[in-house]
């Protein structure tokens, strides 16, 4: 499989997973008018947000979803596992297409926890 075909397959899979995640989280939220408004305001799709994120941060997309923000523009959140095993969280503004956050996500695993697992 070519590198481009693999990337397309990865992006398609990530997009499908993210859409499923968004639907589940929205099923718990009765604020559909706010969601509809946020989606209508969005200028980019989830797949485009994933593409923007992977251009800024190399790695494997592990999660992506849409957030209809209460204050400010809606955004997409894309989590990428880097080659050095960091989980990066990127937020892409759904209206401007700009990366508004790119930081290491706290996984809740402390260094002492990693040491404990390696030594046992």
Automatic annotation (TrEMBL):
InterPro entries per record: PepSY
Domain PepSY: 43-101
Signal peptide: 1-27
Keyword tags: Signal
Highest taxon in the source lineage: Bacteria
Keyword DNA-binding: no
Protein name: PepSY domain-containing protein
């Amino acid at each position: 499989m070519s590198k481009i075909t693999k990337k397309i397959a990865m992006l398609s899979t990530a997009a499908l997973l993210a859409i499923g995640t968004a639907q589940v989280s929205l099923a718990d939220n009765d604020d559909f008018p706010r969601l509809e408004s946020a989606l209508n305001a969005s200028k980019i799709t989830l797949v485009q947000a994933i593409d923007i994120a992977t251009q800024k941060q190399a790695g494997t997309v592990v999660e992506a979803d849409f957030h209809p923000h209460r204050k400010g523009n809606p955004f997409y959140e894309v989590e990428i596992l880097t080659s050095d095993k960091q989980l990066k969280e990127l937020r892409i503004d759904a209206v401007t297409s700009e990366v508004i956050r790119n930081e290491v996500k706290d996984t809740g695993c402390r260094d002492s926890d990693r040491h404990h697992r390696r030594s046992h």
